Amino acid sequence: MTTTDAHTMPRTRPTLRWRVVDIVVASVLGVASGLLFLVWNVAYEPLSVPLKAALPGLQALAGGGWLFAGVLTGLIIRKPGAALYGSLLAAAVSALVGNAWGPLTLVSGLVQGLGAEIIFAIFLYSNWRLYVSVLAGMGAGLAMAINDLVYWYPGAAALFSTVYTVSALISGAVLAGVLPWLAARGLARTGALSRFASGREATTGSTRRRS
Questions:
Q1: CB-CB contact of 64 with 134 (8 Å)
Q2: Cβ atoms < 10 Å from Cβ of 99
Q3: Where exactly are the transmembrane stretches of this chain (predicted)?
Q4: Which of 7, 40, 123, 188 is the most exposed place for a label (fewest CB within 10 A)?
Q5: Relative orientation angle of helices 130-151 and 158-173, to the nearest 10 degrees
Q6: Cα–Cα dist 79/60, whole Å
Q7: Other C-beta atoms lying within 10 Å of the C-beta of residue 51
Q8: Which residues contact 125 (CB under 8 A, 6 or more apart)?
Q9: What is the reported pLDDT for 201?
């Protein structure tokens, strides 16, 4: 093939249609995230108490532990609805096994997943850089703050609402933005995601750096 032919050939665009392997892996990620949520359900209270004592509203800094599922699933699957599916499934696992919030956990999972999903949709499911992941985490954090202020803190003072929202955004950026991005890249480098664009991209990048 000549250089001219290589430049004139149409580029293959990644399909946004779900495959069976996408459903399977997204389900595994959602269930695994839900099991991690169970750990966070126990850890949240001792973590949030000193934050709340320091300044009411700061407890949202610990809320990011429930936000990563949607972002992680979206980063790996890279298909419309992946973030929403991963977040909702993780919430369902947490609710079914048992927690203090019951069925409202599903509402949280739905809203938080939608917050991340909207960010990925804005970038047309074609940009998976760190800053997009951080924005998706912040989208989930903002969704969490709005949901919590409506359901758990109705009529809260403006100061509390502001501190809670800013804390949720920060927590979302770090715990649900940076960490899932690093986790997805680390998992891709192992070769476990070779059937996904996220895995092939990481492998190609590593090969180029070594050459």
A1: no
A2: 17
A3: 20-40, 60-77, 82-101, 107-125, 132-153, 159-183
A4: 7
A5: 150
A6: 29
A7: 16
A8: 16, 78, 79, 80
A9: 77
Residue 13: the pLDDT is 53
pLDDT for the residue 196: 82
pLDDT (0 to 100) of residue 205? 54
Q: Could you write out the three-class secondary structure of 11-64? A: CCCCCCCCCHHHHHHHHHHHHHHHHHHHHHHHHHHHHHHHHHHHCCCHHHHHHH
pLDDT at 195: 81
Q: What structural domains and CATH numbers belong to the chain? A: 19-200 (1.10.1760)
All residue ranges of the chain with pLDDT < 50 are 1-12, 207, 209, 211
